[in-house]
Amino acid sequence: MSKLETILQEEVLAEIQQLMSEAEAEAQKVVAAAKEKAEAVLSAQQRKLEARKKAELHRAESAAELAVTTARVEAKGQVIAQIRAKVEERLERLKDSQEYPKLLERLAAEASKAVGGAEAVIVHPDDAERLQSWATQQDVKLETSEDVRLGVVAVAKGGKTRVANTLTDRLERAWETLSAKVAQTLWP
To answer: Were 119 and a residue from 22, 43, 114, 157 both cysteine, which residue would form a disulfide, CB within 3.0 to 4.6 Å?
Structure first.
């Protein structure tokens, strides 16, 4: 998992820095505008508006802090979303790797074991040929479905139990933990 974190960190570090600097620049503009407004009020009625100036400046700083905080949260959310999109993109590219047929076999074996011996294994039509030999060796019926991507669904004998074992399902289950680790790595 640390290899994935390292790769992701390298790819998005530049984007993070750009988003964060844009957020800081926007916050500085908000503070500068608020200070100008406060100074104009001060010059018109110095003594009467001293209390108002302080209140306005405090509100402006609070607004700027809120703007910075909001921008940071949005930037972090965008970065995490970009990271997830890149991870999903890389998972899709696995289909073209030489290791993918063996990965499919491992996913099928895990799913078959989880259902206590599969009667059938369902794969995407593009993956049927890659898993045919395994299915024949295991004496498991091989079915296809456009709905299964990057993995398999094992069907238990009798068809009542099904176990999905796909890379996208695994990513979905692990995403909360993974995204938290990525966030800790990028924003300690």
So the answer is: 157
Give the residue, 30 or 137, on which the prediction is more confident.
137
The crossing angle, in degrees rounded to 10, of helices 100-114 and 128-138 is 50
Instruction: Write phi, then psi, for 170 (nearest 5 degrees).
Output: -65, -40
Indicate the burial class of 20 (C-beta count within 10 angstroms; 0-12, 13-18, 19 or more). Answer: middle
Cα–Cα distance, 185 to 188 (Å, whole number): 6
Q: How far apart are CA 87 and CA 183, in angstroms?
A: 15
d(C-alpha 141, C-alpha 79), whole Å: 42
Buried b (16+ CB within 10 A) or exposed e, 37-68: ebeebbeeeeeebeeebeebbeebeeebeebb
CA angle 9, 15, 16 (to 5 degrees): 70
Q: How far apart are CA 85 and CA 9, in angstroms?
A: 14
- 60-95 pLDDT, tens digit per residue, is 788 878 887 787 778 778 877 888 888 888 888 888
Can you tell me whether residue 158 is helix, strand or coil?
coil
164-184 b/e (C-beta count within 10 Å ≥ 16 → b): bbbbebeeeeeeeebeebbee
Both tokens of residue 140? 């498991």
